[in-house]
Amino acid sequence: MKKGQQWVMQEGPYILLDDIHTGIGYLSHAARDVSSETVNFMIRVGKGLVYLCITPRLAEKLHLREIGDTSIQNDKSVTVSIDHKDTTTGISASERAHTIKACVQPEVKPDDFQRPGHIFPIISKDILMLDRAGVAEAAVLTASYFSSEPCAYACEILDNTGRIADKKTINEIKKKYGLPLITFSELISMQYEETNWLKVVNKKSVGNAHECWMYTVRNTLENRDCTLYIKKDMIKPEHIIFYQACEVGDILGTSQCSCEFHFADYYHQLCLHEIDALVVESKKESINTKEVAETVKNQMKTLVKKLAVENELQIANS
């Protein structure tokens, strides 16, 4: 079970807290599990507007387009509000739940809804929290642990005076109703960890006796490539070297640098089975945090293990 699933696998709603921009708390839950009781709970306890957080794909399917000035940076991409065509006023908790539930049915069509209505769809960005850290992205990301069609409903938490609830009030609600609380920061970290940033874009045989595989690996997070070298008979990668290319030592062939070893040294060690894999990176400065860089490094180690399994199968079948 993934970390996010441990947080949100429950029958009732959970709290999403924007600890990055606004400090606003939201009650949220997956649309597929909507009920009139939960909608009523959100209205009664949250007191804010009830949103339907949807993916761009679902928005296109339902012909829901963003309204307002799209040239202005905003934390919400709001569409025209909707009610299901079978509702009467559309405002009751049961009818709002019916509208929400209808949106995630496989056979749903644009003309199943009246516009305007009492449910307010907001469209998430394609890559969610890594593109824009808003409530739509946070709600869709958490809902993705429940369904292949991630869609969630959410409601701002207000205090008893009608103002935006502060952190103390949000924590009181959390404690009173036993609700999990997930921060936007946690969701961003989680998405960084769980997104596969590496893609093999090229592979060729290299070496005097063609004894090594050379892979070009695209780091899509930083939009740059690195080169991975492994021996063709490598099956248990335990010693992986990450080496930043040194122009002085590698290209000019001088020792006027602080590097202990250069590419030729490491490649020689690889051929002698003293190391199992060699990852050569450029010295381009990373724009991301050490935590993110470590995530990419761990993914590279996982990739090397996967390629080792492929090597083993190829050797066994040869």
Which superfamily, in CATH terms, is the homologous superfamily of the largest domain? Answer: DHBP synthase
Secondary structure tally: strands: 12
Q: Report strand order across the widest sheet.
A: 4-5-3-6-2-1-7
What is the rounded distance between the termini? Answer: 37 Å
Largest sheet: 7 strands, mixed
User: Would you give the CATH topology of the largest domain?
Assistant: DHBP synthase
Low-pLDDT windows of residues? none
Number of domains: 2
- What share of residues is helical? 25-40%
Percentage of residues in DSSP E strands: 15-25%
* CATH top-level class of the largest domain: Alpha Beta
Overall average pLDDT: 89
Q: Tell me which CATH architecture of the largest domain applies here.
A: Alpha-Beta Complex
Order of helices and strands: HEEHEHEHEHEHEHEEEEHHEH
> Which value, in Å, is the CA radius of gyration?
26 Å
Number of helices: 10
Rough outline = elongated
| Structural class based on helices, strands and sheet pairing | alpha+beta
Oligomeric organization of the protein chains: single chain
Could you characterize the architecture of this molecule?
The chain has ten helices and twelve strands. It has 318 residues and is of the alpha+beta class. The protein folds into two domains: 3-194, DHBP synthase (Alpha-Beta Complex); 198-317, Rossmann fold (3-Layer(aba) Sandwich). A seven-stranded mixed beta sheet has the order 4-5-3-6-2-1-7. A five-stranded mixed beta sheet has the order 8-9-10-12-11, sandwiched between helices.
Q: Would you summarize the structure shown here?
A:
The chain is α+β, with helices and mostly antiparallel strands and 318 residues long.
